[in-house]
């Protein structure tokens, strides 16, 4: 008797695009591995795995002309 089913498929392990290392202190060479980063198939940015947690990093979106020309609104509690 096996513990896996016929419908279950094994995923191939993806090789990271970048490796993340902790900085070595006191001028030591190298550091211990801390995680990995992957480039997503669509879009720009990175998917980062550190300590078993997944993070996503993306560049800021470009501001449109309408966003840059809007007048500043007074902060709540300030007079106009």
Largest sheet: 4 strands, antiparallel
The percent range for strand residues is 25-35%
Q: Regions with pLDDT < 50 over 5+ consecutive residues?
A: none
Shape: extended
Sheet with most strands: strand arrangement: 1-2-3-4
- The counted number of beta strands is 4
Query: Which structural class is indicated by helix and strand composition?
Result: mainly beta
Helix fraction, binned, reads under 10%
The overall average pLDDT, rounded, is 78
Question: Over all CA atoms, what is the radius of gyration?
Answer: 23 Å
**First-residue to last-residue Cα separation:** 77 Å
**Helix-strand sequence:** EEEEH
How many helical elements?
Answer: 1
Structure description:
The protein has 80 residues and is mainly beta. The protein is 5% helix and 25% strand. It has one helix at 65-68; strands spanning 18-21, 33-38, 46-50, 53-57. The protein has a 4-stranded antiparallel beta sheet with strand order 1-2-3-4, with no helix packed on it. Strand 3 (46-50) and strand 4 form a beta hairpin. The radius of gyration is 23 Å and the shape is extended.
